[in-house]
Amino acid sequence: MRILPFLMLLVGASQVAAQNPCLQLVSGIDGGVDLAFNALFVPPTGITVETWITYDDASIATGLWRWPTIIRQNTNPGAEVWFLRVNAANTASRVLIFAMKTPSGVNNSVSYPFTSGEFAQLTHIAATYDGQNLTLYKNGLPVASRALSTAQEIPNNGGAIRIGNGDPSVAGIETWNGRIDELRVWPMARTQAEIQASMNEALSGVPGGVLTFNFDGHYIDTSNLLFGTPFGSVNFGVGPNLTQASPNAINVGVSTTTCSRAIQSLAGSLPKVGNTAFSLWAIRGPTPARSPLALVAIGGQPAPSSQLPFAGVQLAFDITTFLTEVALLPASGVLGNTRFALPLPNALRLIGTSYVFQIGYVDALCGPQGIAASDGLYFTIQ
Predict the structure, then answer these.
(1) What is the CATH number of the domain that holds 239?
(2) What span, in angstroms and rounded, lies between the C-alpha atoms of 96 and 236?
């Protein structure tokens, strides 16, 4: 795991407790990390929350109320939008739960009963919500799922994110009891293959609104530079040995400005040769009822500033380096997300080649000439 060079000056060497550090907290002792509200915390078009954890269930006593929490969005009592925690209650129960609140205020959840000592060693867990399905993963494999009757966006009720703790009504009872490392929040429900492709990588500098907390002696999201503030008793322990990784990708251009929400492009994992799970995403696009067709376009270089719009949209790639396009039908999923699978062969000749990805939609309600487009994702294959 790494501390970015410019971050070393910010956090100071005194905060680095160990090689491969991670957060370490103890149930009953109040502590955690807070981040002031940011719209990235509540992506309307689904979510993936993933992290490496340990959990000491042996030290959770019966008769004491405990809800050890990995992460919670909105700490106001009863106002949480989503959270990932253990529901120990006052019986020392062993149930991992991921909950998501609907716009109408209903809490839907999926739970995984685990055995004594199951999380004593560092374990990767992930939770996804695609608008209609909640799924929990352990070490890249699904262990629990729940399908809802209707698709619903994630509501934006404001509120801070709290890591390693939850509802502050009673100090300490929702403090996590173990370690937390490489905590990431993606603005869409990633596939199982995408989760497996990057679970053993320590990610930073990921574009597209992805939050990456490495906890390398600091509390900073290393993709968007959001700064967390520790409170109470927070220590650094030893985390997993992961491969340092960055996607070598940036967003270029702008999405169609006449849309009610900006269509954002990003990748579901790293563009590496041999990564058969690699895919390109566009989130916050039109829902299928509004858009019967989408086009994925790929160019070789970003557009120059002098390039004129095409069909009312700004092309993110240099039109003279246009390579190919693919039609997608249906254009997107129930919440307006589009995923285009682009498995990368294990071909060394691809290393160092760069591409610009952009997706356009037939959308009479949004685009100035009936077409709306995302910004572009410019990436180099590793």
Answers:
(1) 2.60.120.200
(2) 23
